[in-house]
Design brief:
Strand content of chain A: under 5%
CATH superfamily of chain A: MetI-like
Strand content of chain B: 15-25%
Number of strands of chain B: 10
Number of domains of chain B: 2
CATH class of the largest domain in chain B: Alpha Beta
CATH superfamily of the largest domain in chain B: Periplasmic binding protein-like II
Shape of chain A: flat
Number of domains of chain A: 1
Largest sheet of chain B: 10 strands, mixed
Shape of chain B: globular
Oligomer: heterodimer
Helix content of chain B: 40-55%
Largest interface: A-B, 32 and 44 residues
CATH topology of the largest domain in chain B: D-Maltodextrin-Binding Protein, domain 2
Order of helices and strands of chain A: HEEHHHHHHHHHHHEEH
Distance between the termini of chain B: 75 Å
Helix content of chain A: 55-70%
CATH architecture of chain A: Orthogonal Bundle
CATH topology of chain A: MetI-like fold
Number of strands of chain A: 4
């Protein structure tokens, strides 16, 4: 008689907590949102309209203009992070890992501290710093004779979004720094010594040896930045309010979703259109993550030490 | 179990029940007036609780910009308070239509209010009233009288005089002529467009014609206020683009700005901030030409209704009867100078500036904000669009004509006057 393999209950039991919690707080609401976006409120209650809400969102100029404006702003927000936050993060990590740097622990902590601050604090502090009336930015520029360079950046259409993106960069630059720093530390000394033996030192050692070894970390940081930026909402809401002024110049998908879903002032909330926007955001982020996972991550070379 | 012990347990259960019955009912008020927390807690609530020992009132305000969204979520979740402070017109009408606000038409205190006062909280056919009117606010300009005396300036009566005064203040350079920013957008619409506008569109006449569809936002009387707003730009402080509402309030109360486009709700806060450092006074929005009838925005702004899902409907109705009484009107208007009771019984204002504002009711024709009734029912929302357009016009990034055309186009996309 052959012994039947017993059912391995312990696998289900060990998986259950995570699966249940994840399903209850992530999967069910996600499906609920997708479902909500297919209905429209009418006099007689919710009515199934298929993709009707998406047709309104992309076909009706009143909605599509706002959507493309928000998406465009979101892309710019992301570009600033990629061009400013991540290179500065890598640079700081490279400097921190230099054995000749003194007080490295202090710098590391100081640069990382803003990351743990609340968005609300960061938003208000920077709004005060940049205030044309009471801020220290105009007087500091004045002290070095550059008062003329100051403008009410947060109030001008051309500069408000960039200014807020840079505030966000200031807040989060610690994250790429820490991740890259950890990756740099994990490079074995033998590799570095071998490079030195071959005469590669200083910056060329960074470019030729360290950078290729930390590329997977840079990939992870990029995708984290992408997801974070396309889900962003807090900083804009705190600094500019739900109307994302001036003239919607700082409106990103998160604030557009908030205004639509919950309503604003006399505008009554529209959960169905809000869910349609949330679904569009979900698909954009999903597409971005897929491009990364299948297009980039599989091609990154990994090195075993 | 021994008999005495049983009796003891039984007795304690009954006593606990009795104690429970005497525990006062707590009624929670939802509101966006977080500035009024102290007045409710120190003046209004103790006055009510003194005569109603079985009721405790808790005033629980939310920040104004979040109020509507927060309230809707709480009502849907069933966690909203017993009494709901009502925004005028559609926001509250929607709540009533959803069955979230109770019908209060048969409240005895409703007899104390005029039809105009109740209009903001009624169904379109005026058959059902769902909030007790509390107060209206009046728009105008508060100015630094000490500064005016110093510079030898008079209250302007006409638009031309208004800009002459602004020019003189600017020339002198001691004061910022006018304290207003465009960062928060709503001041530009509420204290700008809706403040000076009624003089051009002739108050109720224009407002009702807009609803009837016989006037359009692109007509000269609706574009003219934008043309005046576009001229304001030169008189606002440096960096007004990033100036917030609290910034503007501080500029004025610190005595750095001479004129503040205002709503009467500022009076109490300004008095506390300014104390004795300078004297303030107010003038109504200047008319386009000398001798024109003046129109003021006397906006029905606050009402209070009952959450249909409240656990204590009787206590809540009793409280609302009191809110509708002359006693409450006197208490409220004087505790909060600048919020003018809508009660038919006239209230003697003890604050001279509040008295100045309310005196305009006699010489000028009152109206309410043009975008509030019916016209902000659809998407895009005319009121929210007006914020954006007014701020754009003042910043100079949109011309008055373009702004008006955009608003009318947005309104046309969903509003068909004939169907009303």
């Amino acid at each position: 008689m052959t012994a039947r393999r017993p059912i391995r209950w312990h696998i289900a039991v060990f998986l259950a907590p995570a699966v249940l919690v994840y399903t209850a707080i992530m999967i069910v609401p996600l499906i609920g949102t997708l479902n909500l976006s297919l209905y429209r409120a009418t006099e007689t209650g919710p009515q199934f309209v298929g993709l009707g809400n998406f047709r309104t969102l992309f076909g009706d100029a009143l909605w599509s203009d706002a959507f493309w404006n928000a998406l465009g702003n979101n892309v710019w927000f992301f570009i600033i992070h990629m061009l400013v936050q991540n290179p500065i993060g890598i640079l700081l990590a490279a400097l921190l890992s230099s054995p000749r740097l003194r007080l490295a622990a202090f710098y590391r902590t100081a640069i990382f501290v803003p990351t743990v601050l609340s968005f609300v604090i960061v938003g208000f502090v920077w709004k005060l710093i940049l205030s044309p009336l009471w801020g220290i930015a105009p007087s500091m520029l004045g002290a070095v004779g550059l008062k003329g360079l100051f403008a009410p950046w947060l109030g001008q259409e051309g500069s408000a979004l960039t200014a807020l993106a840079l505030v966000s960069v200031w807040q989060f630059v610690g994250i790429p720094m820490m991740l890259i720093y950890a990756a740099l530390l994990s490079i074995p000394d033998e590799v570095m010594e071998a490079a030195e033996m071959d005469g590669i030192t200083g910056w060329s050692r960074f470019w030729k040896v360290q950078l290729p070894l930390i590329l997977p970390s840079i990939g992870i940081i990029s995708i984290l930045t992408f997801v974070g930026n396309f889900n962003a909402f807090d900083l804009i809401y705190v600094a500019q309010g739900a109307l994302a002024g001036p003239d919607f110049a700082t409106d990103i998908l998160g604030t557009f979703l908030y205004r639509t879903f919950f309503g604003f002032q006399l505008q009554i909330g529209d959960p169905n259109m809000g869910a349609a926007i949330a679904t569009a955001m979900f698909l954009i982020i999903l597409a971005g993550v897929c491009v990364y996972l299948f297009g980039i991550q599989t091609r990154l070379r990994r090195y075993q030490f | 179990m021994t008999t005495p012990l049983r009796l003891a347990i039984l007795a304690s259960t009954i006593l606990a029940g009795a104690a429970h019955a005497q525990e006062p009912v707590t009624l929670t008020i939802e509101s966006w007036r977080n500035d009024d927390l102290a007045i409710w807690n120190d003046t209004i609530i103790p006055a009510y609780e003194a005569s109603h020992p079985n009721v405790q009132i808790e005033f629980a305000p939310t920040a104004p910009a979040e109020y509507n969204a927060a309230l809707n979520s709480k009502l849907q979740a069933g966690s909203a308070g017993d009494l709901i402070t009502c925004r005028p017109f559609d926001a509250s009408l929607e709540l009533y239509n959803n069955g979230q606000l109770s019908d209060l038409t048969d409240l005895a205190a409703m007899a104390n209010f005029s039809d105009v006062a109740k209009a903001a909280w009624q169904t379109d056919d005026a058959a059902h009233t769902f909030c007790v009117p509390m107060a209206s606010v009046i728009h105008g300009f508060i100015y630094n009288k000490t500064a005016f005396d110093e510079l030898g300036l008079q209250e302007p009566k006409t638009v031309d005089e208004f800009f002459q005064v602004l020019d003189k203040i600017k020339e002198d350079g001691t004061y910022i002529p006018m304290a207003m920013g465009t960062n928060d957008q709503w001041e530009a619409a509420t204290m700008g467009y809706q403040n000076i506008g009624p003089n051009y569109w002739k108050g109720e006449e224009g407002r009702l014609a807009l609803i009837a569809g016989t006037q359009k936002l692109t007509d000269p009387q609706w574009v003219a206020p934008y043309e005046q707003l576009a001229r304001w730009k030169d008189y606002l402080g440096d960096g007004f683009e990033a100036q917030t509402y609290p910034d503007s309030q501080n500029l004025f109360t610190l005595g750095r700005a001479a004129i503040y486009p205002a709503g009467s709700w500022e009076i109490a806060g300004f008095r506390a901030q300014i104390a004795d450092s300078f004297e303030m006074a107010a003038f109504p929005p200047p008319v386009p030409a000398a001798g024109d009838t003046c129109y003021i925005s006397d906006h029905t702004d606050i009402g209070i209704g009952m959450n249909a899902a409240t656990q204590h409907p009787e206590e809540a109705r009793e409280f609302l009867e009191w809110v509708g009484s002359p006693e409450f009107a006197a208490l409220y208007s004087n505790a909060l100078p600048g919020f003018f009771s809508l009660n038919s019984t006239p209230v003697e204002q003890t604050d001279p500036l509040a008295q100045e504002f309310v005196s305009w009711r006699e010489e000028c024709q009152p109206t309410i904000r043009s975008t509030y009734q019916i016209l902000s029912r659809g998407t895009p929302n005319l009121e929210n669009e007006t914020w954006n357009a007014s701020a754009n016009v003042i910043r100079g990034s949109e011309t008055p004509q373009d702004a008006a055309a955009r608003l009318q186009q947005g309104l046309d996309s969903w509003y068909k006057p004939a169907q009303q």
